[in-house]
Amino acid sequence: MDFQVLKDSVYSSPAFVLDETEAAKALAMLADLRNQCGCKVLYSIKALPFSAVLDMAKPFVDGFSASSLFEARLAGEVLSGQGSIHLTTPGIKTDELDELSLLCSHISFNSLTQYQRYAETAGALTSIGLRINPKLSFLHDDRFDPCRQHSKLGVAIEELSRSIGLDQIQGLHIHNVFSSTDFTPLIKTVEKLQHYLGIGLAELEWLNLGGGYLFGQIEDHRPFIELVKKLKNDFGLEVYIEPGKAIVGQAGHLVATVIDRFVSDGETIAILDTSINHHPEVFEYQRQPELHEHDPDGQYSAILAGCTCLAGDVFGKYCFKAPLAVGDKVVFNNVGAYTLIKANRFNGYNLPDIYVSNSLRVKKLKHYDYQDYRRQWLAD
Protein backbone atom coordinates (compact mmCIF):
# COMPACT_ATOMS: atom_id res chain seq x y z
CA MET A 1 0.00 0.00 0.00
CA ASP A 2 1.28 3.45 -0.95
CA PHE A 3 0.69 5.33 2.29
CA GLN A 4 1.15 8.72 0.66
CA VAL A 5 -1.72 7.82 -1.66
CA LEU A 6 -3.72 6.83 1.41
CA LYS A 7 -3.19 10.28 2.87
CA ASP A 8 -3.47 12.29 -0.35
CA SER A 9 -6.53 10.57 -1.83
CA VAL A 10 -9.90 12.17 -1.37
CA TYR A 11 -11.08 9.90 1.42
CA SER A 12 -13.82 11.08 3.68
CA SER A 13 -12.51 10.76 7.21
CA PRO A 14 -12.49 8.56 9.16
CA ALA A 15 -12.11 5.82 6.57
CA PHE A 16 -11.50 2.10 6.65
CA VAL A 17 -9.48 1.16 3.57
CA LEU A 18 -9.23 -2.43 2.38
CA ASP A 19 -6.06 -3.08 0.36
CA GLU A 20 -7.14 -5.52 -2.34
CA THR A 21 -3.56 -6.27 -3.32
CA GLU A 22 -2.57 -7.32 0.20
CA ALA A 23 -5.67 -9.49 0.67
CA ALA A 24 -5.15 -11.15 -2.73
CA LYS A 25 -1.52 -11.84 -1.82
CA ALA A 26 -2.58 -13.60 1.40
CA LEU A 27 -5.26 -15.60 -0.42
CA ALA A 28 -2.87 -16.68 -3.18
CA MET A 29 -0.33 -17.82 -0.59
CA LEU A 30 -2.95 -19.95 1.15
CA ALA A 31 -4.12 -21.40 -2.15
CA ASP A 32 -0.53 -22.38 -2.92
CA LEU A 33 -0.22 -23.97 0.51
CA ARG A 34 -3.40 -25.92 -0.19
CA ASN A 35 -1.92 -27.19 -3.46
CA GLN A 36 1.26 -28.31 -1.72
CA CYS A 37 -0.34 -30.39 1.04
CA GLY A 38 -3.97 -31.00 0.13
CA CYS A 39 -5.55 -29.14 3.04
CA LYS A 40 -8.81 -27.31 2.53
CA VAL A 41 -9.01 -23.59 3.32
CA LEU A 42 -12.00 -21.84 4.87
CA TYR A 43 -12.14 -18.09 5.42
CA SER A 44 -13.22 -17.39 9.00
CA ILE A 45 -15.68 -14.61 8.32
CA LYS A 46 -15.86 -13.42 11.93
CA ALA A 47 -12.63 -11.48 11.25
CA LEU A 48 -14.31 -9.26 8.62
CA PRO A 49 -17.61 -10.39 7.06
CA PHE A 50 -17.81 -7.53 4.57
CA SER A 51 -19.23 -8.84 1.29
CA ALA A 52 -16.36 -7.43 -0.78
CA VAL A 53 -13.96 -9.60 1.23
CA LEU A 54 -16.13 -12.69 0.87
CA ASP A 55 -16.42 -12.17 -2.89
CA MET A 56 -12.67 -11.68 -3.13
CA ALA A 57 -11.94 -14.81 -1.08
CA LYS A 58 -14.45 -17.10 -2.78
CA PRO A 59 -12.24 -18.17 -5.76
CA PHE A 60 -9.31 -18.98 -3.45
CA VAL A 61 -11.00 -20.94 -0.66
CA ASP A 62 -13.10 -24.07 -0.21
CA GLY A 63 -15.76 -22.29 1.79
CA PHE A 64 -16.29 -20.19 4.90
CA SER A 65 -16.38 -20.87 8.62
CA ALA A 66 -19.13 -19.29 10.67
CA SER A 67 -19.96 -18.80 14.34
CA SER A 68 -23.64 -17.85 14.23
CA LEU A 69 -26.83 -18.07 12.20
CA PHE A 70 -26.34 -14.62 10.66
CA GLU A 71 -22.78 -15.44 9.60
CA ALA A 72 -23.98 -18.73 8.11
CA ARG A 73 -26.75 -16.92 6.21
CA LEU A 74 -24.29 -14.41 4.77
CA ALA A 75 -21.86 -17.18 3.85
CA GLY A 76 -24.65 -19.04 2.10
CA GLU A 77 -25.67 -15.97 0.11
CA VAL A 78 -22.14 -15.41 -1.16
CA LEU A 79 -21.29 -19.05 -1.83
CA SER A 80 -24.61 -19.92 -3.51
CA GLY A 81 -23.87 -23.60 -3.01
CA GLN A 82 -20.31 -23.36 -4.33
CA GLY A 83 -18.39 -24.28 -1.18
CA SER A 84 -18.77 -25.63 2.33
CA ILE A 85 -19.84 -23.79 5.48
CA HIS A 86 -18.44 -24.97 8.81
CA LEU A 87 -20.04 -23.86 12.06
CA THR A 88 -18.72 -24.03 15.58
CA THR A 89 -20.13 -21.94 18.41
CA PRO A 90 -21.11 -22.27 22.07
CA GLY A 91 -24.31 -20.41 21.23
CA ILE A 92 -26.59 -22.73 19.21
CA LYS A 93 -30.25 -22.00 19.94
CA THR A 94 -32.94 -24.62 19.56
CA ASP A 95 -35.08 -22.46 17.28
CA GLU A 96 -32.12 -21.89 14.93
CA LEU A 97 -31.01 -25.49 14.58
CA ASP A 98 -33.14 -26.43 11.57
CA GLU A 99 -31.92 -23.48 9.52
CA LEU A 100 -28.31 -23.97 10.59
CA SER A 101 -28.53 -27.62 9.54
CA LEU A 102 -29.76 -26.58 6.10
CA LEU A 103 -27.12 -23.89 5.69
CA CYS A 104 -24.04 -25.62 7.10
CA SER A 105 -22.22 -28.57 5.57
CA HIS A 106 -20.39 -29.20 8.87
CA ILE A 107 -21.37 -28.46 12.48
CA SER A 108 -18.91 -28.98 15.34
CA PHE A 109 -20.82 -28.98 18.59
CA ASN A 110 -19.10 -27.19 21.44
CA SER A 111 -20.08 -29.56 24.24
CA LEU A 112 -21.30 -33.09 24.82
CA THR A 113 -24.61 -31.69 26.07
CA GLN A 114 -25.07 -29.80 22.80
CA TYR A 115 -24.19 -32.95 20.90
CA GLN A 116 -26.67 -35.05 22.87
CA ARG A 117 -29.40 -32.44 22.42
CA TYR A 118 -28.97 -31.63 18.73
CA ALA A 119 -26.88 -34.19 16.85
CA GLU A 120 -29.72 -36.50 15.88
CA THR A 121 -31.71 -33.65 14.32
CA ALA A 122 -28.78 -31.97 12.60
CA GLY A 123 -27.07 -35.18 11.52
CA ALA A 124 -29.63 -35.93 8.85
CA LEU A 125 -28.52 -32.88 6.89
CA THR A 126 -24.96 -32.05 7.89
CA SER A 127 -21.64 -33.63 8.88
CA ILE A 128 -21.40 -33.73 12.67
CA GLY A 129 -18.27 -33.06 14.72
CA LEU A 130 -17.15 -31.92 18.15
CA ARG A 131 -14.91 -29.06 19.18
CA ILE A 132 -12.11 -30.39 21.36
CA ASN A 133 -10.30 -28.61 24.19
CA PRO A 134 -6.83 -30.18 23.97
CA LYS A 135 -5.90 -28.71 27.37
CA LEU A 136 -2.73 -27.16 25.94
CA SER A 137 -2.24 -23.44 26.56
CA PHE A 138 0.23 -21.46 24.50
CA LEU A 139 -1.04 -17.99 25.44
CA HIS A 140 -0.18 -15.95 28.51
CA ASP A 141 -3.35 -13.86 28.38
CA ASP A 142 -6.49 -15.68 29.52
CA ARG A 143 -8.66 -13.34 27.46
CA PHE A 144 -7.42 -15.07 24.32
CA ASP A 145 -6.81 -18.59 25.63
CA PRO A 146 -9.42 -21.19 24.60
CA CYS A 147 -7.71 -23.63 26.98
CA ARG A 148 -7.88 -21.40 30.04
CA GLN A 149 -9.10 -22.98 33.26
CA HIS A 150 -12.88 -23.44 33.31
CA SER A 151 -12.93 -22.87 29.55
CA LYS A 152 -16.28 -22.68 27.82
CA LEU A 153 -14.75 -23.74 24.49
CA GLY A 154 -14.82 -27.39 23.56
CA VAL A 155 -14.99 -30.86 25.08
CA ALA A 156 -11.99 -31.67 27.29
CA ILE A 157 -9.86 -34.17 25.43
CA GLU A 158 -9.79 -36.67 28.31
CA GLU A 159 -13.58 -36.47 28.57
CA LEU A 160 -13.98 -37.15 24.86
CA SER A 161 -11.86 -40.27 24.96
CA ARG A 162 -14.01 -41.84 27.68
CA SER A 163 -17.47 -40.48 26.80
CA ILE A 164 -18.10 -41.04 23.12
CA GLY A 165 -17.06 -43.39 20.35
CA LEU A 166 -15.42 -41.70 17.38
CA ASP A 167 -17.62 -43.79 15.11
CA GLN A 168 -20.56 -41.65 16.31
CA ILE A 169 -19.20 -38.44 14.78
CA GLN A 170 -17.60 -37.48 11.49
CA GLY A 171 -14.98 -34.97 12.61
CA LEU A 172 -13.17 -32.93 15.25
CA HIS A 173 -12.39 -29.23 15.51
CA ILE A 174 -9.44 -27.78 17.44
CA HIS A 175 -8.43 -24.14 17.95
CA ASN A 176 -6.17 -23.09 20.82
CA VAL A 177 -3.94 -20.22 19.61
CA PHE A 178 -4.23 -16.57 18.62
CA SER A 179 -1.99 -14.74 16.12
CA SER A 180 0.66 -17.46 16.23
CA THR A 181 3.74 -17.04 14.04
CA ASP A 182 5.02 -20.54 14.72
CA PHE A 183 3.62 -24.02 14.00
CA THR A 184 4.98 -25.58 17.20
CA PRO A 185 1.63 -25.26 19.05
CA LEU A 186 -0.18 -27.02 16.21
CA ILE A 187 2.33 -29.87 16.09
CA LYS A 188 2.16 -30.36 19.87
CA THR A 189 -1.64 -30.24 19.82
CA VAL A 190 -1.93 -32.89 17.10
CA GLU A 191 0.59 -35.05 18.96
CA LYS A 192 -1.60 -34.89 22.05
CA LEU A 193 -4.67 -35.68 19.97
CA GLN A 194 -2.94 -38.75 18.57
CA HIS A 195 -1.79 -39.81 22.05
CA TYR A 196 -5.36 -39.82 23.35
CA LEU A 197 -7.19 -41.09 20.29
CA GLY A 198 -4.56 -43.13 18.45
CA ILE A 199 -5.72 -45.11 15.44
CA GLY A 200 -9.25 -44.08 16.33
CA LEU A 201 -8.61 -40.95 14.27
CA ALA A 202 -9.00 -43.16 11.21
CA GLU A 203 -12.69 -43.58 12.10
CA LEU A 204 -13.21 -39.87 11.39
CA GLU A 205 -13.76 -38.23 8.03
CA TRP A 206 -12.26 -34.82 8.78
CA LEU A 207 -10.18 -32.77 11.18
CA ASN A 208 -10.50 -28.98 11.38
CA LEU A 209 -7.25 -27.46 12.67
CA GLY A 210 -8.94 -24.11 13.30
CA GLY A 211 -7.41 -20.69 12.87
CA GLY A 212 -5.07 -18.45 14.80
CA TYR A 213 -1.97 -18.97 12.66
CA LEU A 214 -0.60 -15.98 10.71
CA PHE A 215 0.61 -17.97 7.71
CA GLY A 216 1.95 -14.92 5.90
CA GLN A 217 4.28 -14.15 8.81
CA ILE A 218 5.66 -17.69 9.05
CA GLU A 219 8.63 -18.18 6.71
CA ASP A 220 8.89 -21.97 6.78
CA HIS A 221 5.65 -23.77 5.96
CA ARG A 222 7.26 -27.20 5.70
CA PRO A 223 6.26 -28.33 9.23
CA PHE A 224 2.63 -27.56 8.43
CA ILE A 225 2.79 -29.26 5.03
CA GLU A 226 4.37 -32.39 6.52
CA LEU A 227 1.79 -32.47 9.33
CA VAL A 228 -1.16 -32.28 6.95
CA LYS A 229 0.27 -34.92 4.63
CA LYS A 230 0.82 -37.24 7.58
CA LEU A 231 -2.73 -36.79 8.84
CA LYS A 232 -4.10 -37.50 5.38
CA ASN A 233 -1.84 -40.49 4.71
CA ASP A 234 -1.97 -42.15 8.15
CA PHE A 235 -5.66 -41.63 8.93
CA GLY A 236 -7.37 -40.78 5.63
CA LEU A 237 -8.57 -37.46 7.04
CA GLU A 238 -9.79 -34.42 5.13
CA VAL A 239 -7.90 -31.59 6.83
CA TYR A 240 -9.33 -28.06 7.10
CA ILE A 241 -7.87 -24.77 8.28
CA GLU A 242 -9.89 -21.61 8.85
CA PRO A 243 -7.69 -18.48 8.77
CA GLY A 244 -9.31 -15.09 9.30
CA LYS A 245 -6.80 -12.53 10.48
CA ALA A 246 -4.18 -14.25 8.29
CA ILE A 247 -6.19 -13.11 5.25
CA VAL A 248 -7.40 -9.61 6.16
CA GLY A 249 -5.30 -8.51 9.12
CA GLN A 250 -2.62 -6.71 7.14
CA ALA A 251 -5.03 -5.62 4.43
CA GLY A 252 -6.95 -3.06 6.49
CA HIS A 253 -6.04 0.56 7.31
CA LEU A 254 -7.85 3.19 9.35
CA VAL A 255 -7.36 6.73 8.07
CA ALA A 256 -8.10 9.56 10.51
CA THR A 257 -7.71 13.33 10.64
CA VAL A 258 -6.46 15.53 13.49
CA ILE A 259 -9.35 17.81 14.48
CA ASP A 260 -7.83 19.42 17.57
CA ARG A 261 -4.44 19.83 19.23
CA PHE A 262 -3.59 21.13 22.69
CA VAL A 263 -1.26 20.57 25.65
CA SER A 264 -2.37 18.73 28.79
CA ASP A 265 0.02 18.40 31.75
CA GLY A 266 2.98 18.94 29.46
CA GLU A 267 1.95 16.43 26.76
CA THR A 268 0.59 17.28 23.32
CA ILE A 269 -2.86 15.77 22.77
CA ALA A 270 -4.09 15.27 19.21
CA ILE A 271 -7.82 14.58 18.95
CA LEU A 272 -8.76 12.47 15.94
CA ASP A 273 -12.06 12.19 14.10
CA THR A 274 -12.04 8.46 14.81
CA SER A 275 -12.11 6.70 18.18
CA ILE A 276 -11.18 3.43 19.78
CA ASN A 277 -14.81 2.51 19.22
CA HIS A 278 -13.81 1.99 15.58
CA HIS A 279 -11.04 -0.33 16.83
CA PRO A 280 -12.42 -1.69 20.12
CA GLU A 281 -9.59 -4.15 20.81
CA VAL A 282 -7.36 -1.16 21.59
CA PHE A 283 -9.42 -0.62 24.74
CA GLU A 284 -10.43 -4.23 25.35
CA TYR A 285 -6.87 -5.49 25.43
CA GLN A 286 -5.03 -2.20 26.18
CA ARG A 287 -3.20 -2.51 22.90
CA GLN A 288 -1.38 0.30 21.07
CA PRO A 289 -2.01 -0.04 17.33
CA GLU A 290 0.70 0.43 14.75
CA LEU A 291 0.79 3.92 13.23
CA HIS A 292 2.38 4.51 9.83
CA GLU A 293 3.67 7.98 10.76
CA HIS A 294 5.32 6.90 14.01
CA ASP A 295 9.09 7.47 13.99
CA PRO A 296 10.92 6.15 17.07
CA ASP A 297 13.58 8.83 16.51
CA GLY A 298 11.06 11.62 15.96
CA GLN A 299 11.58 14.69 18.11
CA TYR A 300 7.88 15.57 18.40
CA SER A 301 5.53 13.40 20.43
CA ALA A 302 1.78 13.41 20.78
CA ILE A 303 -0.87 11.32 22.46
CA LEU A 304 -3.43 10.33 19.84
CA ALA A 305 -6.91 10.31 21.34
CA GLY A 306 -10.37 9.62 19.99
CA CYS A 307 -13.23 12.10 19.80
CA THR A 308 -15.62 10.52 22.31
CA CYS A 309 -16.13 11.52 25.94
CA LEU A 310 -14.64 8.24 27.23
CA ALA A 311 -11.50 9.18 29.19
CA GLY A 312 -9.76 6.02 28.03
CA ASP A 313 -10.46 6.71 24.35
CA VAL A 314 -6.72 6.86 23.67
CA PHE A 315 -4.66 5.09 20.99
CA GLY A 316 -1.29 5.81 22.60
CA LYS A 317 1.73 8.06 22.51
CA TYR A 318 3.62 8.32 19.21
CA CYS A 319 6.66 10.21 17.89
CA PHE A 320 6.80 12.25 14.69
CA LYS A 321 9.38 13.99 12.51
CA ALA A 322 7.33 17.19 12.58
CA PRO A 323 4.62 18.48 14.91
CA LEU A 324 1.11 17.30 14.16
CA ALA A 325 -1.26 20.04 13.03
CA VAL A 326 -5.03 20.24 12.77
CA GLY A 327 -5.99 18.79 9.39
CA ASP A 328 -3.12 16.26 9.23
CA LYS A 329 -4.03 12.69 8.34
CA VAL A 330 -2.66 9.64 10.12
CA VAL A 331 -2.99 5.96 9.20
CA PHE A 332 -3.31 3.01 11.56
CA ASN A 333 -1.90 -0.13 9.91
CA ASN A 334 -2.86 -3.81 10.05
CA VAL A 335 -6.37 -3.24 11.36
CA GLY A 336 -8.24 -5.45 8.90
CA ALA A 337 -9.40 -8.02 11.44
CA TYR A 338 -11.80 -7.54 14.36
CA THR A 339 -12.21 -3.80 13.82
CA LEU A 340 -15.29 -3.06 11.71
CA ILE A 341 -17.06 -6.14 13.03
CA LYS A 342 -16.73 -4.77 16.59
CA ALA A 343 -17.07 -1.07 15.75
CA ASN A 344 -19.87 0.96 17.28
CA ARG A 345 -21.38 4.46 17.27
CA PHE A 346 -20.78 5.37 20.91
CA ASN A 347 -21.60 9.05 21.54
CA GLY A 348 -23.38 9.06 18.18
CA TYR A 349 -20.16 9.33 16.19
CA ASN A 350 -20.56 7.71 12.80
CA LEU A 351 -18.86 4.54 11.61
CA PRO A 352 -16.01 4.98 9.10
CA ASP A 353 -16.71 5.01 5.40
CA ILE A 354 -15.38 1.86 3.74
CA TYR A 355 -13.13 1.93 0.68
CA VAL A 356 -11.38 -0.66 -1.41
CA SER A 357 -8.06 0.28 -2.95
CA ASN A 358 -5.39 -1.14 -5.21
CA SER A 359 -2.67 0.30 -7.44
CA LEU A 360 -5.23 1.35 -10.04
CA ARG A 361 -8.26 2.61 -8.17
CA VAL A 362 -9.86 3.82 -4.99
CA LYS A 363 -13.56 3.06 -4.63
CA LYS A 364 -15.99 3.90 -1.85
CA LEU A 365 -18.11 0.86 -1.00
CA LYS A 366 -20.09 1.93 2.04
CA HIS A 367 -21.27 5.09 3.76
CA TYR A 368 -23.37 5.22 6.91
CA ASP A 369 -25.57 8.20 7.69
CA TYR A 370 -27.87 9.53 10.37
CA GLN A 371 -30.72 7.32 9.19
CA ASP A 372 -28.65 4.20 9.97
CA TYR A 373 -28.04 5.52 13.48
CA ARG A 374 -31.70 6.51 13.84
CA ARG A 375 -32.99 3.09 12.70
CA GLN A 376 -30.78 1.40 15.26
CA TRP A 377 -32.22 3.36 18.19
CA LEU A 378 -35.84 3.98 17.27
CA ALA A 379 -38.27 1.47 18.75
CA ASP A 380 -39.90 -0.74 16.15
From TrEMBL:
Example GO molecular function: diaminopimelate decarboxylase activity
Residue ranges of every copy of the Orn/DAP/Arg decarboxylase 2 C-terminal domain listed in the record: 98-336
Keywords for the protein's UniProt record, in alphabetical order: Cytoplasm, Decarboxylase, Lyase, Polyamine biosynthesis, Pyridoxal phosphate, Spermidine biosynthesis
GO cellular component: cytoplasm
One Pfam family this sequence matches: Orn_DAP_Arg_deC
Modified residues (N6-(pyridoxal phosphate)lysine): 46
Compartmental location: Cytoplasm
Active-site residues from the entry: 309
InterPro entries in UniProt: Ala_racemase/Decarboxylase_C, De-COase2_C, Nsp_de-COase, Orn/DAP/Arg_de-COase, PLP-binding_barrel
Catalytic activity: carboxynorspermidine + H(+) = norspermidine + CO2; carboxyspermidine + H(+) = spermidine + CO2
Required co-factors: pyridoxal 5'-phosphate
SUPFAM superfamilies to which the protein is assigned, alphabetical: Alanine racemase C-terminal domain-like, PLP-binding barrel
EC number: 4.1.1.96
PANTHER family given in the database record: CARBOXYNORSPERMIDINE_CARBOXYSPERMIDINE DECARBOXYLASE, DIAMINOPIMELATE DECARBOXYLASE
Recorded family membership: Belongs to the Orn/Lys/Arg decarboxylase class-II family. NspC subfamily.
Function: Catalyzes the decarboxylation of carboxynorspermidine and carboxyspermidine.
SUBUNIT field: Homodimer.
Name of the molecule in the record: Carboxynorspermidine/carboxyspermidine decarboxylase
